[in-house]
Amino acid sequence: MEAAVGHTIAERFERQATYCGAMGAPVCAHLLSSAALDYARGGVVREFFAAHKEMETLSRAGIRFLAALHTCALDGSAPALAAHLPSCGGDGDAPAAWTAARAFLLENLQRVARLYNRTPQTNEPARSMPLLVGLLAAVQASPLPVRLFEIGASGGLNTRLDCYRYEGGTWSWGDPRSALVLRNRERGGRPLSLGAPLHIAERAACDLHPLDITKDADRRYLRSFIWADQSERLKRLADACEAASNVPLSIEKADAIEWLGERFRPREGALTVLMHSAMTYYLTPAQRAALRERIGRNAERARARAPMAWLRFEEEAGGMATRLTRWPGAIEGVVARSDGHAQGIEWLAP
User: Fold this and answer.
1) Which of 58, 104, 141, 279 shows the smallest number of beta carbons within 10 Å?
2) Closest-CA residue to 225 (of 344, 115, 64, 75)
3) With contact defined as beta carbons under 8 Å apart, do 194 and 136 qualify?
4) Given this model, what pLDDT does residue 72 score?
5) Pairs from 6-11 (Cβ < 8 Å, separation ≥ 24)
6) Separation between Cα atoms, residue 256 and residue 48, nearest integer Å
7) Cα–Cα distance measured from residue 238 to residue 216, given in angstroms and rounded to the nearest whole number
8) Cα-to-chain-centroid distance, residue 72
């Protein structure tokens, strides 16, 4: 993952390059390593950040930089770069991709800066697999209709997790006719509670920058934040958008803590679930504390016939953990551990 924002841009790019390389994205790894070297040598990348000093403090520097360039390749404004990016049908020539990216940056500093300033949003649908298993575990303990609330939902792909097909080494779940079939890599264990009677009676979501997956521009926004040489992830996103489009969902533009308000109170005869994935990184310590305080206050109202659960896929100890807390009783456990794209899943008993 990215180093702390106090490190130099070159160091942050290099660290993200290492992560891209390890995750099967060699073209993006080369782009970032080359950009880091260019920055260190005082080239156009140094000029780019010198002209926009405020951008150096933004999180996810490498991801933002790649997404800005990727957008220009996807929308046709950087054809020389697109010619070398697999996501655009290019040849995957990494050195040639950097030559084209550097030339484009020289001529388009302001446009790339505007794109760099966007909020990163991947909305990785593969995370739905461990989240689904966590939700089923909550339903197994409290077999009631579910009221599902997701904060930091982006385009709401994971909010619609029940419309996908899931296939593991020894198990499956969901409609085999779904446009999206998730086959995440597993490395041990087996998900529990697959037979729990999941019925989502109510679902709602919010985000500070919500996206509408029925709109081409918003789909392109999501595609831009996927590394350009990860064809499997790009196809997964397209299939998820197709499947999820059949499940109506209005994502409200709102601050997560304010949005929860009275909405997230337990209700008699229903299991009320709060869910989020890879979003607490973007919260300040004060905001994280406020979120926990809000959850704790509502959890005090949980009863056997009005249970509550908190399901989250967030960073822990250098990886990602899918953690579930249930009330009444504040019963907590880890459902699964994996990487940031929900691959290499180790299933645990929550």
Assistant:
1) 58
2) 64
3) yes
4) 97
5) 8/39, 9/36, 9/39, 9/45, 9/49, 9/56, 9/61, 10/36, 10/37, 10/39, 10/40, 11/36
6) 33
7) 11
8) 21
Residues 103 and 80: beta-carbon distance below 8 Å: yes
Pairwise CA distance, residues 323 & 330, whole Å: 12
Report the pLDDT value the prediction gives residue 325, as an integer from 0 to 100: 98
Q: The whole model's pTM is what?
A: 0.91
Count helices and strands (H / E) in the chain. 12, 12
Residues 184, 190, 194: CA angle, nearest 5 degrees = 90
Judge contact between 335 and 137, C-beta under 8 A: yes
Residue 321: strand, helix, or coil: strand
SS3 at position 246: coil
Q: What percent of the chain is helix, strand and coil (3-state, nearest 5)?
A: 45, 20, 40
Structural contact between residues 14 and 78, judged by C-beta atoms closer than 8 angstroms = no
Q: Distance between CA atoms of 94 and 19, rounded to whole angstroms?
A: 16
What would the pLDDT profile of 232-272 be if each residue is shown by its tens digit?
999 999 999 999 999 999 999 999 999 998 788 999 999 99
Residues 6+ apart with CB under 8 A from 202: 145, 146, 147, 148, 270
Query: What mean pLDDT is reported for the chain?
Result: 95
Q: How many residues comprise the chain?
A: 350
**Hey, what are 223's tokens?**
């595609």
DSSP characters over 254-315: --HHHHHTTTTS--TTSEEEEEEES-GGGS-HHHHHHHHHHHHHHHTT-BTTB-EEEEEEEE
Q: How far apart are CA 141 and CA 196, in angstroms?
A: 9
Residue 28's nearest CA partner among 65, 73, 79, 75 is 65
Our CA dihedral for 16, 22, 27, 30, rounded to 10 degrees, sits at: 50
Residue 216 to residue 234: CA distance in whole angstroms:
14
What is the token pair recorded at 218?
A: 């918003």
% pLDDT > 90, the chain: 91
Going from N- to C-terminal start, the domains of the chain cover: 9-116, 125-347
317: left (phi over 0), alpha (psi -120 to 50) or beta: left
